[in-house]
Design goal:
- The chain is an alpha/beta fold and 283 residues long.
- It is 55% helix and 7% strand.
- The protein has 13 helices and five strands.
- Strands 1-5-3-4-2 form a five-stranded mixed sheet, with helices on one face.
- Strand 3 (40-44) and strand 4 (52-56) form a beta hairpin.
- Helix 1 (22-34) crosses helix 2 (58-66), helix 1 (22-34) packs across helix 4 and helix 11 (208-250) crosses helix 13 (265-275).
- The radius of gyration is 28 Å and the shape is flat.
- The two termini are 57 Å apart.
Amino acid sequence: MDIPLDQIHCLVPLPASIKESTKYRQIRSSIHAIGLVEPIVVSLDRSQGRSFIVLDGRVRIEVLRESGVQRVLCLISTDDEGYTYNKRVNRLSVVQAHRMIVRAAERGVSVQQLAEALDVSPDAIREKFRLLDGICSEAVALLADKPATYGMFPILKQMKPFRQIDVAQTMINLGNYSIKLAAAMLQNTPSDQLMKGTATKTQRGGPVDAIVRLERELSAVQADTRLLEEDYGPASLQLEIIKTYIGTSLLENVAVVRWLAKQRPEYLQQLQRIADIRELPLQ
């Protein structure tokens, strides 16, 4: 729907420094170069009649207002949740951004046009073109929808394909895509799994055996922590249900307590201890 800008408002104002940010400059440059690509997502403000609340696109709205635009194309959301629309948006990964730039170039968009639209230098665009050169297709597929950083790909290029896959899978398991982790794994990569010219540099880096041991220990601890985080919620809920049942159903039933006291006093003692739990002890 084409909506006048004066009928659209944000519940939360933008920070005062937003216009100085890189994100704002990139969006402004993109809109000036190629126009609005994605419509603004709004919902009807039921408290004010013909007024709309921005769910996604606050910065684009500000850029359009600054540019003197009067009306904007919007998507009307029928959702009425209390949480922000942005939580449902899948952010573009580094690999996906690379593919979009390559596809745009294949369709005739020049490097200069891409640079202007993204508010970066032409050299940066050319660097993005070469982002995946030297990365095996299996590693690219693993990282395609992951929040990988640009800086980790030059590090992966120093490894042979099998090691690239191993590093990519380790990062996914740990949920860590930082340059520091990639550099640490490069440092302890055996020389026969490195590209030519890389082995000499990494061998000078320090005691490889200690780094390998530390990496293994870190991986094991992080994997155990992740398992605990995943299991903690369901386990706590299950414990609360059991504790409530024991405390309100079993131990308040006189006949059950009498039978346990006569036949299984050790069970009664343990059930009372469970019912008295207030919080789990930290191990």
